[in-house]
Design a protein that fits this description.
alpha+beta, Beta-galactosidase, Chain A, domain 5, disordered N terminus
Length: 750
């Protein structure tokens, strides 16, 4: 049966139903020679490009260096499998270790030495990775130059693994296991995900030199390495997951190498194959469903070698995949970062970055934005040298970012330009984001309604993202509610909640978003109420470079509420504080397979220099860093103000936190944040109307504002919008910006 997919036919997006090759045709074409990286028909143009194009020439020069290094210092095939690389960090500092030898691993910050398991075994993983990359690099050099020494080195690696692989015992991230697939166990690696990532370059290298193998050598490599490693990978199905995307890419490429139609068909068309992963894993706004842009790109890393190999054989990449390339642009911050929501490391996305993805996207679809993007830096990547499309430069950027709602992902992006400051680049210099969406499953953090922002082009208040999952600081601090700018209840982490969008809106140099998290019935084992019997909500407006923020909680019972806030720089507050010396030490727990909503949360024990003082309800704080000063004006019922320093990104950096702790049934936390010289702010009223309307009135440098949000309706005191910021002038109240529920709202879970 011939299968059909939708294929884009032009750069302006016109589409037509076009027949793609059947799996049988793809495998038949793969029999004719190399195809995973390139085909023989592509070689003349690639060689010509390497001679005349400076970027392609520079990349090939680097590949030759890598290949020659692999020849000059050939590493032996390890006698055992490796370990999880995320164990490889200092237990004290959280930073990645430096290998001084195969058995000595040193923290570059505190100097502490580590040895033995799992650190020595992580070093073995790195040897496996180097050998895998060497197989690909030498295979490429064989195809380009025809020099036999490169093919010989690939053959040595392949035959070495074919002899050794059967001796690799099944083991997981926690050590040896008594059966395959226990805790995701693998053989060359400690989890099947890493086994797949190791195997893909091995397969690419084998495909490149296969014509040089004797039939006996080919059979030994297939039976001793390719087939058993593929079977290892297929012992686990991770369903809808970045893991499964790596699995299917590996066994799909293996199917092409083995000439196995069933493997290729399963990689494409099975229930959890590539086409269904795209359909179920990509949300309507283009983001990968796990809620972390790090894993958005990591999933793309899995798909791209598989789709490019299929394109070499005549099958165009699915048009639906293009949405993953488009989605990150709207979340670009003024300093070039993408938001590190959930389990994300700092992800840079400045013009020219991520060329390994966008060179392919430009070659596949010809979108002018991609061409402009990759042309902003030297194009010295494999993707450009082998498959890239020339051109792309233009005078003006085809991208100008404004406020945007990622509704399905639950990310609101508010953007404004500071009056009197010249806009530099493609983003305004003020940007605030709120995370209200799905929890994100295993990679989610208990941080609903978290906000983080950039002012005057600088990161001021951040989501700390994550560090290596094998480090206790990740679980005790980075994956805690206290580490985020949101509400903590009764001294514990929030539940793994999903929020409900109330409304979003943008006007002239202003934007606003409002959302709630209620005690909805859980949708899955990953979702639940933020806290038993409590609904929390937040409305935040960004106007020029001023932030108006209203965070509230409603409950029939009394609770301890902690309004949490963090910013870079040194912090000064109006509250006299004394050191806290009676906090219990933290428990260095490492959780790798279960959820994260522990009771008895000990995240305060990860805070340095904790202090607390009593406040009468109104207090202010100032965070100073080079280039920008943040002023925070806060109002609430009387309570305690806790301060301290917590880990940031990287873990060697610190942020200063201020946590307002109060005890009551329901509460409203009005806050105004300003920069530099704007320091005259007073609160005139906290609003808690019987109809559910929440908000506050404040005077900011002589201008009077009224900020209202109605979580149960579409108007506030007669003004259209579920959240409205008003300014009182001589002519009366004027709407600055208002939020409305989009017609396509997807997060009404109440």
């Amino acid at each position: 049966m011939r299968r059909f997919v939708l294929v884009g036919l032009s750069i302006v997006g016109a589409c037509s139903l076009a027949a793609t090759p059947t799996v049988r045709e793809l495998v038949a074409r793969a029999r004719k020679g190399p195809s995973l990286l390139l085909t023989r028909d592509m070689l003349p143009e690639i060689r010509r490009k390497a001679e005349v194009d400076p970027d392609a020439k520079a990349w090939w020069k680097n590949v030759r260096k890598d290949a020659d290094r692999a020849l000059a210092r050939p590493e032996a095939i390890p006698d055992r499998g490796g370990q999880w690389t995320l164990w490889y960090s200092c237990r004290n500092c959280g930073v990645m270790l430096k290998a001084e030898s195969p058995t000595r691993h040193v923290c570059p910050k505190c100097g502490k030495d580590y040895s033995g398991w799992p650190f020595d075994d992580v070093y073995v993983s790195r040897v496996h990775s180097r050998l895998s990359r060497a197989a690909r690099a030498c295979g490429l050099m064989w195809l380009l130059t025809g020099e036999a020494k490169y093919a010989t080195r690939v053959k040595e690696i392949l035959l070495g693994y074919a002899a050794a692989y059967d001796g690799y015992v099944w083991h997981s991230r926690n050590g040896p296991v008594d059966r395959p697939n226990k805790n995701g166990a693998a053989r060359a690696a400690a989890q099947i995900l890493d086994e797949a990532a190791w195997l893909i370059p091995i397969l690419q290298g084998m495909d490149a030199v296969r014509d040089t193998l004797t039939p006996e050598e080919d059979a030994r490599i297939i039976s001793g390495l390719v087939k058993p490693s593929t079977e290892t990978i297929r012992t686990e199905c991770a369903k809808w997951s970045n893991h499964e995307c790596w699995h299917l890419a590996a066994y799909g490429l293996s199917g092409l190498v083995q000439r196995d139609e069933a493997l290729v068909d399963a990689a494409l068309h099975s229930r959890y194959g590539a086409f269904n992963q795209l359909e179920h894993g990509i949300l309507p706004d283009g983001c990968w469903y796990e809620g972390a842009l790090h894993y958005h790109f990591y999933t793309m890393d899995a798909f791209t070698p598989f789709f490019q190999a299929l394109r070499n054989l005549g099958m165009e990449p699915p048009r639906a995949y293009k949405r993953m390339f488009d989605a990150p642009f709207g979340q670009l911050a003024p300093d070039g970062q993408l938001p590190p929501v959930n389990d994300s490391w700092p992800t840079w996305f400045r013009p020219g970055d991520r060329a390994e993805h966008y060179e392919l996207a430009y070659a596949w679809w010809g979108d002018p934005l991609y061409g402009w993007w990759v042309a902003q830096k030297p194009r010295r990547t494999m993707q450009y040298a082998l498959w890239g499309r020339s051109g792309g430069k233009s005078g003006a950027a085809p991208l100008s970012l404004a406020s945007r709602l990622y509704e399905a992902s639950g990310i609101a992006v508010l953007r404004t330009q500071t009056p009197g400051r010249t806009r530099a680049g493609i983003t305004p210099d003020n940007c605030l984001m709120m995370d209200f969406g799905p929890h994100g499953e295993w990679h989610g953090h208990p941080d609903k309604l978290n906000i983080f922002f950039w002012l005057h082009g600088q990161l001021v208040s951040e989501d700390p993202g994550c560090i290596g999952y094998g480090n206790p600081r990740h679980w005790g601090w980075y994956k805690s509610t206290l580490a985020h700018d949101t509400l903590r209840i009764d001294g514990e982490n929030q539940g793994n909640a999903t929020g409900t969008l109330l409304g979003f809106g943008a006007a002239s140099n202003a934007a606003v978003v409002a959302a709630v998290v209620s005690g909805a019935r859980p949708k899955s084992r990953w979702d639940g109420p933020v806290a038993s019997g409590v609904e929390i909500g937040r409305a935040t407006a960004l106007v020029d470079d001023v932030i108006f923020d209203c965070l509230w909680a409603d409950s029939a019972d009394e609770h301890q509420y902690e309004w949490c806030f963090h910013a870079r720089g040194t912090c000064e507050t109006s509250v006299a504080a004394a050191p806290v010396v009676d906090l219990p030490p933290h428990v260095e727990k490492i959780e790798t397979y279960k959820g994260t909503n522990w009771k008895g949360d000990d995240s305060w024990s990860w805070v340095e220099s904790p202090a607390k003082g009593v406040h009468a309800g109104s207090w202010r704080a100032k965070w100073k860093q080079p280039g920008v000063t943040l002023n925070v004006f806060h109002w609430s019922p009387p309570g305690e103000l806790w301060t301290g320093r917590g880990s940031a990104q990287p873990p060697t950096e610190r942020l200063s936190l201020a946590v307002n702790r109060v005890r009551c049934r329901s509460v409203v936390f009005p806050t105004v944040m300003t920069t530099d010289g704007v320091a005259d702010v007073s609160f005139d009223e906290a609003i808690c109307d019987p109809d559910g309307t929440r908000g506050f009135a404040a005077t900011v440098n002589g201008r009077k504002f009224l900020f209202l949000v109605n979580p149960k309706g579409t108007s506030c005191r007669g003004r259209d919008g579920c959240a409205v910021l008003l300014e009182r002038t001589a002519g009366g109240l004027t709407v600055v910006v208002s939020a409305h529920i989009p017609a396509t709202a997807r997060h009404r879970n109440r």
